Automatic annotation (TrEMBL):
Domain annotation MacB-like periplasmic core: ranges: 16-193
ABC3 transporter permease C-terminal domain sequence ranges: 254-365
Compartment list: Cell membrane
Cellular component, GO annotation: plasma membrane
Subunit structure as annotated in this protein's UniProt entry: The complex is composed of two ATP-binding proteins (HrtA), two transmembrane proteins (HrtB) and a solute-binding protein.
Membrane topology: Multi-pass membrane protein
Coiled-coil positions: none
Protein name per Swiss-Prot or TrEMBL: Putative hemin transport system permease protein HrtB
Keywords: Cell membrane, Membrane, Transmembrane, Transmembrane helix, Transport
Similarity comment: family membership: Belongs to the ABC-4 integral membrane protein family. HrtB subfamily.
């Protein structure tokens, strides 16, 4: 460590440039991780927020909401399982709302209209206003982003391509579904919109798209055998079944993986070139008794210190950047993700020093000093 620090102090500009490169790479990695996490949250925040362990779909739906339609009668059958504490139906639709009748698309807002039963265990807690009530059939809970867009409690909402009129009775926060702000309404109201066309419910009695379960000790395979025509999956599987979720997450992860590999390559090349340039000095040090282990530890220590400083500075820059980003930008820094990527970057950086360490072990003092033909 002593030799590493002395070398860093001696060649300040050279290592400063290397530190800047590491800072920029770390900054980009954390920015991408924030954007990726923000997009995934925007896509499936409502499902992630559910206090549920499992989601029940129609068996042939492939664990996707849009393809699933099952009867509410199944909810009563599911509740007979002793491991099911709570069960509640769930439905989703895409709709456009406006405060007044208009043909101007700019005055309409796309929302995810979500049907739940008032008072069920999956109803989100309001931050302003009142919870859903069966006495207010057309009352809705709106995501806070709609409040920021100018909507307020008591506003009457006209639903496009429908005669339905909804009234905002409360606001919830961090509730988005398929990249759209969520609008929670009573299940019967959702059915009126989703299955307005004659025959669109396929003759299913009181249809829902899925059933959410609070059942931490449930055996999903056993439940599927007990009730015909259903498929029970974990909440994480339900999240991955959201349209475009896997594709978005996969793209961001691939970009991060390439970026981390590129950073390792840059650090490895930088220290390899430095090692080649310092071959005579290493030869002299070996001639006076310095061991391969001592010199190798010096290189590894330099990589560790530069990477640690660069990654820490990158994290700081990322949090400062987050303060300057627009509020509507899907950017969400998760502390666990930041720590995970920081550790991954540090480990990759240390592994990149292996090439330089190997080069040091191959240096012959006499050859390095030019005394042997």
């Amino acid at each position: 460590m002593f030799l590493a620090i002395k070398e860093l102090k001696h060649s300040k500009f050279r290592y400063l440039m290397m530190s800047i490169i590491i800072i920029l790479i770390a900054w980009l990695v954390f920015i991408l991780s924030g954007l990726g996490n923000g997009l995934s949250t925007l896509s499936a925040a409502t499902i992630k927020n559910l206090h549920a362990n499992y989601v029940v779909y129609e068996k042939s739906a492939g664990a996707t909401f849009n393809k699933s339609i099952i009867s509410s009668d199944v909810i009563d059958e599911v509740r007979k399982n002793k491991n099911v504490k709570h069960a509640a139906g769930f439905g989703s639709s895409v709709a456009s709302i406006s405060k007044e009748k208009t043909n101007d698309n700019n005055q309409k807002t796309d929302v995810a209209l979500l049907g739940i039963n008032a008072g069920s265990f999956i109803e989100p807690t309001v931050i302003d206003g009142k919870q859903l009530s069966t006495s207010k059939r057309f009352g809705v809970l709106a995501n806070k982003s709609l409040k920021d867009a100018g909507y307020k409690i008591g506003d009457e909402l006209l639903v496009s391509n429908s005669k339905m009129k909804l009234t905002i009775i409360g606001f919830v926060e961090n509730e988005t579904f398929n990249h759209l702000p969520a609008l929670f309404t009573n299940m019967n109201t959702w059915r009126d919109y989703q299955y307005a066309a004659p025959g669109s419910d396929n003759g299913v009695n009181k249809p829902v798209q899925a059933i959410t379960l609070d059942a931490p000790k449930l055996n999903p395979g056993k439940l599927d055998k007990e009730i015909k025509g259903i498929e029970t999956v974990t909440k994480s599987t339900a999240v991955k079944g959201m349209p475009g979720y896997k594709e978005e997450s996969g793209t961001i992860l691939m970009m991060l993986a390439f970026l981390i590999v590129i950073s390792a390559f840059i650090i490895a090349v930088f220290f390899y070139v430095i090692t080649i340039q310092k071959t005579p000095q290493f030869g002299v040090m070996k001639a006076i008794g310095a061991s391969n282990r001592f010199l190798s530890n010096s290189i590894v220590a330099q990589v560790f210190l530069l990477s640690l400083v660069g990654i820490t500075a990158g994290i700081g820059l990322t949090y400062l950047t987050a303060l300057a980003l627009p509020q509507n930008m899907p950017f969400d820094l998760d502390t666990k993700l930041v720590v995970s990527y920081a550790v991954a970057l540090l480990i990759i950086s240390l592994l990149s020093s292996i090439i330089s360490v190997r080069q040091i072990t191959k240096i012959d003092p006499l050859t390095a000093l030019g005394r042997v033909e």
